[in-house]
Structure formats: structure tokens, C-alpha cells
Amino acid sequence: MKTTRKSKNLKHGFLKRLISSLAILLLFVIALLTYRDSLLDILKGITEVSPSNITVSVLLSVLFFIMEGSIIYKMASGIVPTYQLKYGIATAYRCEFYRLITFGSGTGIAEIHYLHKKGIEPAVGTGISILQFVMKKIGVAILGIIGFILLYCFSDTRALCREYAVFLAIGCIITTVIVLFLLLVTLSNNVLTFVLGIIDKVSVKFPSFTEKAVSLKNQVYLLNESGHIFLRQRYALIQIVLFNLIKLTAIYCIPAYLLQEKCNMGFVECTAIMAAVYMLAGVIPAPSGIGSLEFVYLLFFGVLAEPGIIVPTLLVFRFVTWILPFIIGGILCLISYCKTLQT
């Protein structure tokens, strides 16, 4: 009787894992079909770029995800000492897979899930995910403002800065306000109480908002709690800020590297423009950032060279920061589920 029950449990577990693996594979195929037009454009665009430029772009993208994984590792290992760097890097790629198939909404959930698999409670994982978002915003703000200043300092880009000064100023202000607000919520209990009070008042006035209010209050509370935890680890916090600056600089260098010999701007100027572009794209509403980045990218870099030169660089950028990480993340998800099938 016990043997039969054990056999049924094993069979049930196998079927559950098999279904999960097939579900991942199905999501992978659906995503490829959904983005097939963009994918075809990207694949066509990268054929116009030399293999050496593609290789450098891929390496810079890999550096981005190594730094992203290092950030997850620094945060998670402070909670669970056995957490390893390779787990963080794998999670970074897997989150990219889920980001694409859910239009950005499933990224945090995926990270919480994979952190939980390594022994981190969902509530703590949520706090890590939210704080990670805050730290990225800080990095974007710092580099975006530096880029904005550099554009004014270089005579070649001063005219570009003046032309789009309003947009750049608004982007700097919005990004700075968001970062300051998130930091105040993270570090100040008084601000936390004030924000929770506002959420309560809104939920009372608009009953339909009640369910979302509960979730929002939990996220705000977890952000504050996580902030206080990592505030005690100041060395780790400084490292996380530096890792964010490195990872963002890595992908900012991709267009700069591709364009340095094709337009009248130097490598540093192009990197500064990309920092401003990325900051502006972050404050324009669009699912997963798809659409907003392309718009601002073409708007700013379009004054440097002809569309026939600029568009392929954008397509390469999207390939190495969007399609390639999505494929790697999907493969890692499948490998993970295949391993569970074997056990």
C-alpha cells in the first residue's frame, strides 16, 4: 500500500514538473511569435554590423548581467550566507525572460520566486526586488545628470542640448523626484507613516482601490524595512551603487562603440547622449520600456547621422540587451526544470 502511494506521488511529481517544463517552452514559443516582426527587423539590422562590433556589444551586455547578478548576490547573501554569485546571475537572466513574456509585469514575481527557491522568504525577496529597483533608479539618475552636464560642456553637443533642453530638464527633474521620494520612503519612518496615511485616505475615498492599496502598503513597508536592513551594511550598499553604475555604463557604451567611427561625435559624447536617452526613456510610460527607448534614441542620435546608420545600431542594442538575454533566460529556465525532472 505504501509502495503504491509512493509510486503515485512520484508519478504526480513527475507530471507536475513535465507540465511546468512544457509551459516554459510554450511561453518561449509564444513570445517569439508575438515579437516575430521586431525579431526579424533586429536580425536584419545586425547583418549590417560587423561581427567584431557584434562581439563587443555582446560582451558589454554580458557585463551588464554579471553586474545585475552581483547586485542580487550582494543583497541575497546578506540574508542567506550560502547564496552564490552564479544564482544571482542566473536569476538576472531568468527575470529578463519573464520580463519580455509578461511585458514587464512578471519581472519582480520571477525574482521573488527564484530567491525563494534558495531559501529567502517571499516577503524579504519582495523587499530585495523593490530596493533593487530603487538602486537602479539612483544609478540612472546619477549617470543621466552627469550625461546632461557633459553634453553642455562639449561644444559638439551643446546645440543638441539646447534643442532638447526642455525634455532633458524635465527628465532630470522627474527622475530626481522619483529617486528622492523612494529614498525618503526607504530611510525615513516619518515619511513611511505619511505615505501609508495617504494610501489609506485614497482607499477610503475610492473603495475600488482598496485591494491595490493593501498590496501597495505592503510594498512600501517592505521597501522601508529592506532599506533599514541594508543601511546597516554600508559597505555592501556602496558596492551595490557602484555595480549599478558599472552595469549601466556597460550598455551605454554599446551605441557609443558602434557609432564612434560613423558620426562626428566621439565615444564619450555618444555615451553621455545614451545616458540622457536612457534616463528620459525611463520616465515615458511604455510596457517593459519597449517603444519609449526607441523613440528617444532615434530623436537624439538621429541628429548625429543618417537613419541608415543609426537604426542598425539601435537594432543591435535591442538584440544584445533584449533578445539575447531573453533566449539565455529561457534556456536557463528549461535547464532548471529539466534538472527537477531528473530528481
Listing every helix as H and every strand as E from the N terminus to the C terminus, the arrangement reads HHHHHHHHHHHHHH
Number of strands: 0
Rg result: 22 Å
Strand content: under 5%
Gap from first CA to last CA:
23 Å
Would you mind describing this structure in some detail?
The two termini are 23 Å apart. Helix 3 packs antiparallel against helix 11 and helix 5 crosses helix 6 (122-153). The protein has one domain (51-342). The protein has 343 residues and is mainly α. The chain is built from 14 helices and no strands. The chain has helices at residues 2-34, 36-46, 51-77, 85-101, 107-117, 122-153, 155-163, 165-187, 189-205, 210-231, 234-259, 267-281, 292-301, 307-342. The model has no long low-confidence stretch (mean pLDDT 79).
Summed up:
The chain is mainly alpha-helical and 343 residues long.
Topology, pairings included?
Blueprint: H1 2-34, H2 36-46, H3 51-77, H4 85-101, H5 107-117, H6 122-153, H7 155-163, H8 165-187, H9 189-205, H10 210-231, H11 234-259, H12 267-281, H13 292-301, H14 307-342
Helix pairs in contact: 1-14, 2-14, 3-4, 3-6, 3-11, 3-14, 4-5, 4-14, 5-6, 6-7, 6-8, 6-10, 6-11, 6-12, 8-9, 9-10, 11-12, 11-14, 12-13, 13-14
